[in-house]
Specification:
about 50% helix; about 190 residues; minor pseudopilin epsh fold; single chain; Helix Hairpins; about 10% strand; binds fe (ii) ion; globular; 3-stranded antiparallel beta sheet; 2 domains
Length: about 190
Amino acid sequence: MHKKKPLKFDPASLKGISKKQITLHHDKHYASYVEGKNKIEKVLSKEKLDHIRELKKSESHNGSGMYLHEVYFGHLGGKGGKPSGILMKKLKKDFGSFEKWKREFMACTGAARGWVLLCFDWSDCRLHNYAVDFHDEGAVWGAAPIMALDMWEHAYYLDYGPDKKKYIEAFFRNINWKKIEEAYERYAGQKS
Ligand SMILES: [Fe+2]
């Protein structure tokens, strides 16, 4: 049984993302993926396997939706700016500079219909930006998301309508880079 993870920051404290927007996103949309995943696991535990294809597609959709939202909410509530320390060093090593990394990441926001992810990929032990539709189309095996930008309309429409650019700027103003660095260290084992 998966439990909804609470927000670790005051929902009224974000800059440019309203309390109503972030609360609805967390309490309704994210919660629905946690509930969806639990429901599927309950069916599977009872060995009700008649509609296994639908179940497995739904398991991937709901499970990925749950996980990516936890990454997203987990690194909001910060002061924005730029990363420092080993994460900055790694971004420079893998992309040439922070600015080059960000240019590619931003380009991905125009391509993704679901998420833009910064991932640590074990296939080459490098960081990569990946663009994902829904929650799981475009996912790369062996790559762990350390940073997730939700590009679904439910993430910004209440605050910005169709103006994705302003939402993305607000997202970056609230990033807690320390959390992303911790995730990188966890997955990379500080070896790369
Ligand atoms: Fe979302």
